[in-house]
Each structure stands twice: as structure tokens, then as C-alpha cells.
Amino acid sequence: ITGFPECLDGRLKTLHPVVHGGILAMRANPEHMAQMELLGIAPIDIVVINLYPFKQTILKEGVLLEEAIENIDIGGPAMIRAAAKNWQDVSVLVDPSDYAAFWEELSSTGDVSRETRFRLAAKVFQHSAHYDALIAEYLRLEVGEVFPETLTLTFEKQQALRYGENPHQSACFYREVEQQGGTLAKAEQLHGKELSYNNLGDLDAAIALAREFEEPCCVAVKHAIPCGVGLGETISQAWDEAYAADPVSIFGGIIALNRACDEDTARKMVGVFLEVVVAPSFTDEALEVLTAKKNLRLLTLDQLGATRRFPHEFKHVSGGMLLQSADGFLYGPEPPHPVTKAAPTAAELRSLDFAWKVCKHVRSNAIVLVGGNRTVGIGAGQVNRITALKIALEYAGELAKGAVMASDAYFPFPDCVETAAEAGITAIFQPGGSVNDEKSIEAADRLGLSMCFTGMRHFKH
Questions:
Q1: Average pLDDT in the chain
Q2: 85, 130, 186, 191: which one is catalytic?
Q3: Mean pLDDT of the 150-165 span
Q4: Is 158 helix (H, G, I), strand (E, B) or coil?
């Protein structure tokens, strides 16, 4: 069509006036059509393009930069953008799922409607923007730029949701293109009703916390807040501990297990109303037990038990987006160290480490109480620490005696230490860093508590 050979190893083929003139010429413009005749350019009415497979290329394991670069299409995007710009005269298709309907309309009427051409043109710019955003993101990561002057994100539709946070809100789940293993988008649903918007938010919170532990762990979440976390030598024992932590709040909860769900665990769970259970896998016997509950959603996530670190977190705010590096740490540069005369025992240190891991995933202000292998009280999302502590103690009741406590923020006043001591708390983890640290240290010494500074805080808003 061009009379000019393909050259430069195929890099140059379609960038030619005969091609682009045929696409861009406005048929209703006499001057355009006269120039077309003078130059010997034939009009092109339909453009069907599949761009070079850049996404498929970068998703291959071990792909080299040079191979990725060679799969950046130049002529294809130019042609589809030209066709979309001239949508009143040219039909453009970039998605094979549109072929059948387009052909049916064209073959039955001899043409396609303006509405169809406009819809297809609009799809072109979504398609090309997505394509270019993938290239930009890949190259940004290659050069190691974390916070660029402009940030263009792109996602692909995973599934439509029945509704959003409330029934009067509509919602959809979009996935990142270059997904890492162990992400929520990689989970496979085996059974139960469709997942809801709130289910997905709660699942994300439960999975993130379960992943903190190497030992068998069960996490129960309600409204994106842990209500019970249990550890055990087996996943069945971990369930027992998580359930005992708060048998009331677990009703209608989301459960994350970091080990395969076996029949013993399934028989215990089936007696409780739960919304979702996610685990690395389910034994056949466990599935037989749990699938008896028609609406219970069961998901597998094969890398749920693996420690994963995701580089960035996004949060939409009115008029913009917040971007930060993910909270991938637990403690400061130095291990937690006692700042009181008394030091925690080895058993208390294990419980404090447990409490600190949970505290990291609880909304601020957060207080987490741990006794043995389970949380006994969690105070979350309060506007002051003393209220969070009082809520945690109310949940714990008599179990507060001998328990340990973790706080996501320091204590500028001694009131939390004094209240904890009165309830029978024996040891505390907190970040440290208040100008009034000495007041809480003095209170702990006076009341016989041990307190350690972790050197790092974990605010979660």
C-alpha cells in the first residue's frame, strides 16, 4: 500500500502518508478529498490493530530491558489514535471482544452507526492510555524513580461487585497489571456468594496481618479491624485461640489462615456464622464440611503464608492521591530495649512481639492486649489512647491480669501506664519518642511494670 519496504528490522512499516492520509482524511471536507485524489491516497474505512504485546512481554519471568523495549509499539498506537480522531468516518477496533458485534452490524446494514464508531473511538484512548501507562510504569521502576513529577496509574477490571460500601453505592474491583504472588487479586474463589466491596477490604486487612506470622495463625477481622488473633502448633489450635479471643465479634467475620485448612478446623468453623474464609488451600475433607454452607465464601491464596513486601501504598483523597512507601518494617534499627528497671521475661517478650505485630494492623489509636497465644483485648480507631486502652480492657476483663500490652503511639502522660497496671498488665511495648517519656517510665517503675521502646511507630489511618 505504501510502495515503500518495511525496514529497520520491522521498526518502520506504517508511518507513511498513504496510510495516515487514508485514515485521517475527512470525507465531508472537499479540500481533503481533492488532496487525496491528487496524491493518489485511498481512504481507509476500518482500522483493526493488535498492539505489540508489551504487557505479556514484561510479565515473563527474567525478561530483559532490550526485549521489553522492542515490544513498544509505535505505528500501531499512531494508527488507532488517528482512526479514533476521525471517528465520524473511520471505525477502529482494538479489542477482539468487539469483532462479532461489529461484523454483525456491518454485514446486516452495510455500515455501522455513529454511536458504534464513537464508542469504539472512546475505547481506543482508554486502550492506548493503558498501554502507555504500562510502559511508563515499567521504565519508571527500571530507573528507580519513586515519586515522579507526574504519576499515571493503570488497572484492569477484575470483577463487578454487587454494590459498594453500602447498597446505594456501585462498585468494581480493579487489579494491578503486574501482580505479585500473594496479592488479593490472585485469590481464587472456590465456593459461596459473590464477594462484596466490604468483603474485599476486610480480606485485605486479614491477609496482611496473617502474613506477619511464621507459626500457624488465625486472624478474624470485622470492619477491617482484627477482632481476634490466635497462634498455635496447628491451625486448628490457632482457630481455637482466635475464636476464644472474641467469640461475639467473630460472628459474621472474615477469617484468614496462614496454613491449609484441614477437616478438624473446618468442623469447628462450620458452627459459626462467617462471611469468608481464606487459606493457602483446603483439604478435600475440609471442603466437604464447609461447602455444606451455601453462602460461605471460600478462597485460596497459595502464597498467603509467605512473607511478602509490597513497595507502595495508595490512598485516594478529595482531589488527589496520597502515595507512600509501604510499612514493611516491624522494629527500629535496634531491637526493642527496656527503659524501665524491670525487663520483660522471655515469655513476655514473645507475647509482646505478638501484640506488636497485631498492633501494626489496628487503626490508630491502637491498643492490643495479649495473653498466651491470643489477643484478649483490642482497642482500635480512637481519638485518644486512654479510651482505646479502656475498650481493650473491657474486652479482656479478668484476662487482662498477667497480659502484655502494645501501643502504636507513645505515652506523653502516665495515665495509660497507671490504668494498665491497675488492670494487671505486666509489660508494655511502645515506640518511645515523647518529650514526656520520663513520666511514663517513672510510672512504670513505681508500679513494677516493664516497658520497652520499639524505636518505630505504626500509625494506621
A1: 92
A2: 85
A3: 89
A4: strand
223 is catalytic: yes
* Cell digits of residue 151: 504519576
Q: Is the dihedral of CA 134, 137, 138, 139 positive or negative?
A: positive
Amino acid at 325: S
Which residues are 377's β-sheet partners?
Answer: 369
Phi first, then psi, for residue 372 (nearest 5°) are 65, -120
Between helix 75-85 and helix 114-143 the angle, nearest 10°, is 150
191 labelled catalytic: no
64-85 pLDDT, tens digit each: 999 999 999 999 999 999 999 9
285-291: list long-range contacts, CB under 8 Å, 24+ apart: 286/261, 286/262, 287/190, 287/191, 289/263, 290/191, 290/261, 290/266, 291/190, 291/191
- At residue 11, the pLDDT reads 83
How far apart are alpha carbons 439 and 414 in whole angstroms? 6
* Per-residue pLDDT at 6: 86
Measured CA to CA in angstroms, residue 72 lies from 11, 16, 17 at distances of: 10, 19, 22
Q: What is the pLDDT of residue 9?
A: 81
Mean pLDDT of 333-356: 95
Hey, what amino acid is at 182? G
Selecting among 130, 186, 191, 223, the annotated active-site residue is 223
3-state secondary structure (DSSP) of residue 205: helix
> ω into residue 365 within 30 of 0, thus cis?
yes
pLDDT digits (tens, 9 = 90+) for 209-257: 999 999 999 999 999 999 999 999 999 999 999 999 999 999 999 999 9
How many other β-carbons are positioned within 10 Å of the β-carbon of residue 292?
11
- Nearest 5°: phi and psi at 132? -70, -35
Distance of CA 256 to the CA centre of its chain: 15
- Which distant-in-sequence residues (6+ apart) come within 8 Å of 336 by Cβ? 349, 352, 356, 429, 452, 453, 454, 455
Are residues 344 and 370 in contact, defined by beta-carbon separation less than 8 angstroms?
Answer: no
- From residue 142, give the alpha-carbon distance in Å to each of 66, 68, 139, 216, 313: 12, 11, 5, 37, 19
- The pLDDT of residue 306: 60
Long-range contact set of residues 94-100: C-beta below 8 Å, sequence gap at least 24: 94/49, 94/50, 94/51, 94/120, 94/123, 94/124, 94/127, 95/123, 95/127, 96/50, 98/123
Please, how many CA atoms are within 13 Å of residue 248, restricted to the half-sphere of its CB?
4
